[in-house]
Specification:
Blueprint lengths: L1 E9 L6 H4 L13 E9 L2 E5 L6 H6 L3 E2 L3 H8 L5 E3 L5 H4 L9 E5 H10 L1 H10 L1 E5 L2 E4 L3 E5 L8 E7 L2 E7 L6 H4 L10 H13 L3 E4 L3 H6 L2 E3 L2 E3 L2
Parallel strand pairs: 3-5, 5-6, 6-7, 11-12
Antiparallel strand pairs: 1-2, 1-4, 1-14, 2-3, 8-9, 9-10, 10-11, 13-14
Helix pairs in contact: 5-6
Length: 234
Amino acid sequence: MELYAVHYANEFRYADYHTIYYNDERTVLVPGFVFLYYVAKIGEQVVLFDTGFRNEKTAKEFGTHLLDVKEEVLALTGGKADIIFITHEHFDHVENLELYKGADIIIAKDAWEEVQKAYPKITSLLMLTSNIQIVEDVFEVKGLFRFKVIGGHTKGSSVIYFNEGEEKFVISGDETYFLDNFERQIPNGNVYSLEKNLEFIKQVYNEGITPLPSHDASVIEKYPRISEHIVRII
């Protein structure tokens, strides 16, 4: 398996310490907040972990600068996705679903209900063209990926576990925004369930799992680039 991170946007007007770290009252912005999603290639199959977004109006509303990654992503994926895991329902994780009609979509029940409310036209079309797997707890895919509903960041917030050799990984969505939430075992400042969020963080830390969050610039600084905005992790 090959695994990549796509860095498609920078900056977020609400990325302050109070949002990133539980019980931190500082309202200044935290440096290093970016927007990422992940792509796996298994032979000819392409697997997405979230989809990102590309709406300029939405980006402006949230103080976000979109990067031009279209050609890089096309070169990596061939413009297709066979499987898409959705970690939760927020715009930056789901808005590009419409680009991948026909993919198998794995998503938590509560997250799918929220996506349907926010994007009724897109989801109605997806229900006609895609196989949507609604998950309430755990779902295994191809004997490689374990999709698990956590319910910390949002009610339907989920993560995806997998191994590469002896190393254990988890695509952690927004259960934490940064890696040091795990290292310092500090919960997310923006949670639906503090208890479930902290339980997940401790589990990842105690089991030595490598987390891959959606908003930490250190991910793209740690791994080698294959193009301007894409790094290879595995």
